[in-house]
Amino acid sequence: MRFLLDAEQRAFADALHAMLTAADTPAVIRSWSRGDHARGRALWSRIAEAGVFGLAVPEEYGGLGPRPVELAVAFVELGRHAVPGPLAETVGAAVLLGDRAPAGRFLPGLAAGKETATVAAPTGYALDGDVASLRLLPAPDGLYLSTAAPGPVRRSLDPARRLTRLAPAGELLGTGAPYDRALTWIRLATAAQALGVGLALLDRTVTHVQQRTQFGVPIGSFQAVKHRLADAKTALEFARPLLFGAAVSLRPAEVAAAKLTACEAAYRTARTALHLHGAIGYTAEYDLSLWLTKARALRSAWGTPHECRDLVLTEGLQRG
Amino acid sequence: MDLTHSPADEEFRAAARAWLDAHVPRAPLPSLETEEGFAAHRTWEAELAADRWSVVSWPERYGGRDAGLLRWLVFEEEYWAAGAPGRVGQNGIALLAPTLFAYGTEEQRARVLPPMATGEVVWAQAWSEPEAGSDLAALASRAVRTDGGWLISGLKTWSSRAAFADRAFGLFRSDPGTGRPHEGLTYLMFDLRAPGVTVRPVGRLDGRPAFAELFLDEVFVPDEDVIGEPGQGWAIAMSATADERGLTLRSPGRFLASAARLRDLWRAQGSPGHARDRVADALIAARAYQVFAYAAASRVLAGARLGPESSMNKVFWSELDLALHETALDLLGAEGELADGAWSEGYVFALAGPIYAGTNEIQRDIVAERLLGLPKGRR
Known about the structure:
The complex is a heterodimer of chains A (320) and B (379). Chain A is an alpha+beta fold. Helix content of chain A is 57%, strand content 9%.
């Protein structure tokens, strides 16, 4: 029992945080939302160079994985900077393909960041299907590579999330292997991303309420303001160990519990962040909106609260 | 990141489980908040202590097992999963003992701790006063210097367990001239049956005397019952309350067991949809508290101290406890209002959680000011 990140894992988080801070992600996100992916692709390459996608790819295919704890560490940072693109989906694709015969054909490219993958969710929508070089369609009879052009882009409440329906059929990549393992990994990555989104919203809001003055004092000195932020902090800090516990076990119910808790905490923090920023937070031009809208979208991506609770109630959580 | 217990810790768990299987009373004891129940719980403390299961984390020479924080968490998981009785010695064990380990003398530890472990001496708290609740430093009870000790006078209130307990501990103003409320306070232990002490039991919502008022009129406290230096009581007490809010007062094992029972109740009622989300959320929150505690214990073992983060714990477990019991009463339907069920007793107890041990508003202030760095303001 030593339920702590080690020095190397913390250094990995710090290095990603520094790299993403320097990358000016708000500008990247805004370009991505307009359908201009050049800066986003450049950032994608740097994230791959840092080894993030390799964490879901076995060493024999050019990766470093499977390393779910480091993956969670990385995705917290990706969420903290609201990095756009099919990040969790690329992780899911690596797991889907790693379980099947064509692993050697695709995995090295995914690990190296040369390929961008998306996966159709059970709803039929795939994130950034217009950008991804690999579009995977899990179907009852097997996993397909969707080769025809995807449908038109539909806007998400999060402008950086561009949803498309994938063209059915295409190339059959494999049959038989279940999709559960990939879903667990995507869900873990999404949970981590949501936690990062929540942490960033909290940080930005704490800074804001220290600077914003009304009635002659910082609004952060008012108890009504403090208590909402204290609740956000508490919700996020209790989501964190659930996330890492889920990464350690990779049990579907634990991952579902982490996904639900991290997304609820992030969403609650988003509501607090919006409220405490006042009208400026409600504007599209202010960067806070980039995190606010993502918190809402991630809540239902890859496992709604209802689905996550189902897994907890049917499979149960670990006791000891 | 490792969440598995060592084989030695698992052996410890198995030994605890085996002992509890053999000893936990089959029928629940009468309520702790009655004279009869208090006596029965005291006997249970003695039974625990006889086989060294009363205070596993303490050093062996005081009746413990030197078990460490991780094994204490394991013990608590087994304890509550076994349906074992509430701990009448809780206030002393969770609050006074850590203070004595940190600030007491060896003589005090040797004298006070062993009878605390056996339930022979049960301790009550004496913090709050009529005009000093959340603003504890406003307390007015006095300690006046006398030959060989102190004479304490004043009124302490909401003193948990004091209706039937033996001794109490708390803060008294020994130097009223400092001009600063947090200074000139002294941490004292005293006998609830000493001359000058009048205990007036106070009924909680269900009428049971869960706490009491303590009228103190020049009660003699010998110097040997002062903890730490006179005048330094505030700092000493605050370290104790951090422990209280943190892990030691309400271990995760308690809520894991309650959440599992809630799930069983829900299933027994046919898994009704109206309570589904709340049952799932209780299971998840109990697990979250458990892994949060393992993370905190890991930090402590790595040399860190639990500081203001304990305030997050207190808000979390007190709200979880209430949510759990409210859900259970809702699941019981119209029978939920019956007062003699296990869930209703727990519900009445849970209602107090957000109030005692520092109200949740005080905890949120601490989280906001000391963890988030927000400026102090008017409360």
